[in-house]
Amino acid sequence: MARIVYVNGRYLPYAEAGVHVEDRGFQFADSVYEVCEVKGGALIDVTRHLARLARSLEELRIERPMADPALRHVLSEVVRRNRIRDGLVYLQVTRGRAPRDFVFPGPDTEPTLVVVARSIDPAKIAAKARHGIAVKSVPDNRWGRCDLKTVMLLPAALAKENARAAGAQEAWFVDEKGFVTEGASSNAWIVRSDGFVLTRPLDARILGGVTRSTLLDLIKQLGVPVEQRAFTIADAWAAKEAFVTSASATVMPVTVVDDRRIADGRPGTLTVRLREKFHSMAEKLPT
Ligand code: PDD
Fold this sequence. Notes:
By secondary structure, the protein is an alpha+beta fold.
């Protein structure tokens, strides 16, 4: 089946889809995005994703390409037309196309909207979750507004590549004080030996993950003690469990950090429980 991509009002075959060479997303990374999980044909937590998108756009003064109901429709339509049951839908908005100039173009510049979807084999992610992943720490050399979901992802790509070369599947950024900020494409968590779940509080150094916020709701509902507090790599080594969260992996156990095993090196029991229960808390929008 031919893949279909949405670009600025049109549903196009994959090979024909493209944006202009002077699009500001291409030239300045002047652009934001969202990645939403698709499970059983439903969009997961789309309301929270669109709320975060609205915030990223507003903070960067990029015009909204369309209202939320229309955006939901486009997301659903791309999922439907590509017959995705399990996978991801990717949405990107740029400030639009304009002759190259650092300052913002005039108000008549229309934002670019691209939506792409792809299938992911759930069995592959499940197999990964059974073993857990290894993480490598790297200095956090990103900019000061990591709370905005921009496509300025070169430091994250370098960090992931660095991790891959070291045999790890994710990188954890570490700030100047030695505290973990977040993963290259996920939020970082540990379960301390006293049972408290820890994740860094929201500030400009991390992205407010949608999975993170839904999981915090679930953790509170389950009555598990939780604290939004930063932790170090040494704290992770001393922890009972560790995991990361993202739309693409939901709750993914971390079993190795910088070549050292966490506890017995197997996915933790609470982590596995949170992974199993995650979708009972998440919003599901049928497509
Ligand atoms: N990444 N932190 C960073 C830096 C991220 O890139 C992501 C998501 C997250 C988790 O956010 P959420 O739970 O809303 O997916 C945290 C997506 C999946 C990506 O870039 O592919």
